Structure formats: C-alpha cells, structure tokens
UniProtKB/TrEMBL annotation:
GO terms for biological process: lysosome organization; regulation of intracellular pH. The gene is LOC410860. The chain crosses the membrane at residues 116-135, 173-192, 204-223, 325-345, 351-374, 386-408. This is Battenin. Its main location: membrane.
Length: 425
C-alpha cells in the first residue's frame, strides 16, 4: 500500500483558496434563495389579509345589507336602477388598516436601534398573530385588529430586511423584490384555491405555516455574516472580510440623510400613488357586458393580471436596469388618465386592451420598486446604505396611503354617474 504524497505549501494554499471559494458560492446561493423566500413570506399576509378580512366580516358579522351581494370576498352594492355596481365605502376602512400601520412602522423604525434578530422574531410572531386573530375573531374590531397586526409585521419586515441586505451582495435586492412580487400571485391563488375546499377561518389557520417558514428561512437558511464584516468580491466570487465596524449614526445624522434620498423616494412614491389609485379606485368601475367573464370575474382577473406584471418586473433587474425612475412615474400617470376616462366613457372596445394596460401598470410598479432599491445599493456609500434603505421604504407606503384616501371619494363620485354605453356596442 503506497502512501499518498504530502502536499506542498503552494498546493495547500491552492486547495484552501478553492475550498474558501466553494463555500462562498454555496453561501451566495443560499442567501439569494433565502431573500426570495423572505420576500414572499413578508408580503404574503399583506396580500391575503385584505380579501380574507372582507370574507370574515361578511360571514361572521353580517355586513351585507339589502341591495348588496358578496363577490369573491368583497361586498358590492348593486344599483337597482341598472346604473353601476360598486364597492361600499366601508371597505376603504379595511384597506387603510392594511396600509397605515405599515407606513407608521416604516417612518419610525429606521431611527431606532437595529437589532435584526429581535425585529425578525417580532415579524414572525405578529404575522402568526394576524392570521389567528382574523380567523378566530368574534367582533368586527378584532378582525380589523388582525389586519393591523399583519400590516405591522409586513412593514417591519420590509424596512428591516432591506436594511440588513447591505451586508450581502447587491443581487439579494433582486431576489427579495422577486419574492415580494411572487407573494402577489401565490398569495391570491392560494387563498382563492384553499377557500374552495376549506372555510375562510380554516384557510387562515392553515396559512400559519407561512410565518413558520419565514423563521426557518431567516435563522436556518440565511448565512449571517459576522457583526464586523461586509461582503467583498475576490475573483468574481463573493466572500466575507473583516473590517473596522462603522460607528452608529445619531438621530440627527439619520435625519440629515433624508433630503439626499428624495430623488429616490419621490418618483417611487408617485408611481405607487398612481398605481394604487388605479387598483383601489378604478378597477371595479371597468365593466364589459356580454363577454365570457362576469363583472366579478373581470375584477378578479384584472388583479391577477396586475400581479403577473409586478412579479415579472420585480424579477428582472439583473437583466434590465432602469436608472430614471421618474419616467415610470410619468408613464404610470398616463395609465391613470387612460383608465379613468375608460371608467367615465367606456371607450375601449375590448377587454384585452384593458388587460394590456393593467399588465403594463404592474410592470411599471414592480420595476420602479426593484430599480429604486437596486440603484441605492450601488450608488449610496456603504456607511449610509443601511439606514438609507430603511428610510426609503416609507416612500411606497406613503404613495399607497395617499392613493387610499384619494381613490375613495373619486370612486364614489363615479359610482353616482350613469353607466355609459360601450363604444362600438
């Protein structure tokens, strides 16, 4: 039996480098996958909770009045004069309950100490509590409280994980954004599918698996870097290298960063203002009679169409990078004008044209989100990046909240108008 030849010093160094790079590659893929799953889990409850809360309110508390009928988990008012069919104003309260707590968290959290493990534990517990409270609620205020708790979890998770991403290669921004886009499709389809076999309450209890997956992914799948390390690149492979830890910023220093972030936040906020004005105020007012889809089905598939657009664009930043976010805001405003006039005059002759504009709307919204944070991860100095990413997360929520307030009176005003005759019909 021959003995193996001892390795020379250069050979040992070569093997050590190879092993280090191999470990770095495996860690890189684990982190990319982990951020995708975390993005999915973080936004899953937000996507599901609005329609689920409507279902719970209707089934448990009898909010359907004479002249109203439920459609796919929403409450609609049928105009008995045959004019229009519109959502009741009361649904706007739940809509804002799903937005405003998240906005409050995003405004406050970036200026608080960054204890990532404590924050993620809070996210997991709040997400689970939201599903439990809405499912087991016995009063209306408890059901709405469940929506608020879920919103707090989503907002805290977004501001925390985007800030934490500064410790990883910038590609995790892309996988995080793709995961949040996937939450729209997977959340909507899973809720709709499960409720065909299970009650609304049992469906929400089954979805407790989502916060469990979130916790497993963060603590067991994600590779956490040492406290005093940042990612650097050697020969194209990401690895960790010890550096001197950057001193924490004071509250005043954090506030002073805000003016420089407005060039990212204002275009993103405008895109989301226009986008959610369409989603909340206009979708339901678009109606094509005498086609293969009922009015309720048209609304449902417009939502799916929008989520497909968001998912595609949030997953595209590694292929297409857009620096001028303000162009997307202008294009999204054009969408508002086109679809607003459609609700007023019914001038689009075919529903496929509406589907095209809605898909385009989703592409613009998702593209604005992922490109904004991707640009920030490359343009902002590392010393300011963590807090800057956290502060910028409030831009989309501010836009959504403004859209919520604006869309309700516009929606109700259009509901009071006579339904026009479709052009070409």
């Amino acid at each position: 039996m021959t003995k193996s030849k001892p390795l020379t010093a250069p050979e040992r160094r070569t093997n050590d480098v190879f092993d280090e790079e191999s470990i770095a590659v495996r860690s890189r893929w684990r982190n990319l996958a982990a951020f995708w799953i975390l993005g999915l889990c973080n936004n899953y409850g937000y996507v599901v909770m609005l329609s689920a809360a409507h279902d719970i309110l209707e089934s448990k508390f009898g909010t359907t009045d004479p002249g109203m009928h439920p459609t796919n988990g929403t409450i609609t008012t049928t105009n008995h004069t045959g004019i229009r069919s519109c959502n009741t104003l009361s649904t706007g309260a739940i809509l804002l309950a799903d937005i405003l707590p998240s906005l409050a968290v995003k405004i406050i959290t970036p200026f608080l100490p960054f204890h990532v493990h404590a924050r993620l534990a809070t996210c997991v517990l709040f997400s689970a509590a939201g599903f439990l409270v809405v499912s087991l609620s016995t009063t209306e205020w408890l059901a709405i409280l469940g929506v608020v708790i879920t919103s707090l979890s989503s907002g805290l998770g977004e501001v925390t994980l985007l800030s934490y991403s500064h410790k990883y290669p910038k590609q995790v921004i892309a996988t995080w954004s793709s995961g949040t886009g996937g939450a729209g499709i997977i959340g909507a389809l899973s809720y709709a599918s499960l409720t065909t076999w299970l009650s609304n309450e049992d469906t929400l209890l089954l979805m407790l698996i989502v916060p469990i997956i979130q916790g497993i992914t963060f603590w067991l799948v994600l590779v956490h870097p040492p406290q005093s390390s940042i990612p650097v690149t050697k020969n194209g492979i990401d690895s960790q290298e010890q550096i001197i830890e950057i001193p924490r910023k004071s509250f005043k220093e954090k506030i002073n960063l805000v003016p420089g972030l407005l060039k990212y936040m204002i275009p993103l906020g405008l895109v989301y203002l226009f986008e959610y004005f369409i989603n909340q105020g206009l979708y339901e007012l678009i109606q094509f009679d005498g086609i293969w889809l009922t009015h309720a089905e048209q609304y449902r598939w417009l939502q799916v169409d929008y989520q497909i657009g968001v998912f595609i664009s949030r997953s595209s930043v590694n292929l297409v990078t857009i620096n001028k976010i303000w162009i997307m805001a202008v294009l999204q405003f054009i969408n508002v004008v086109i679809l607003l006039f459609e609700t007023l005059f019914y001038y689009l002759p075919n529903i496929w044209i509406v589907f095209t504009f809605v898909l385009w709307e989703g592409l613009l919204g998702g593209g604005a989100y992922v490109n904004t944070f991707y640009r920030m991860s490359t343009e902002i100095p590392r010393a300011d990046r963590k807090i800057s990413l956290g502060i910028a997360t409030m831009a989309d929520s501010i836009g959504i909240a403004m859209a919520g307030w604006l869309s309700m009176p516009v929606h109700n005003a259009i509901c009071g108008l006579p339904q026009p005759k479709r052009v070409g019909s």
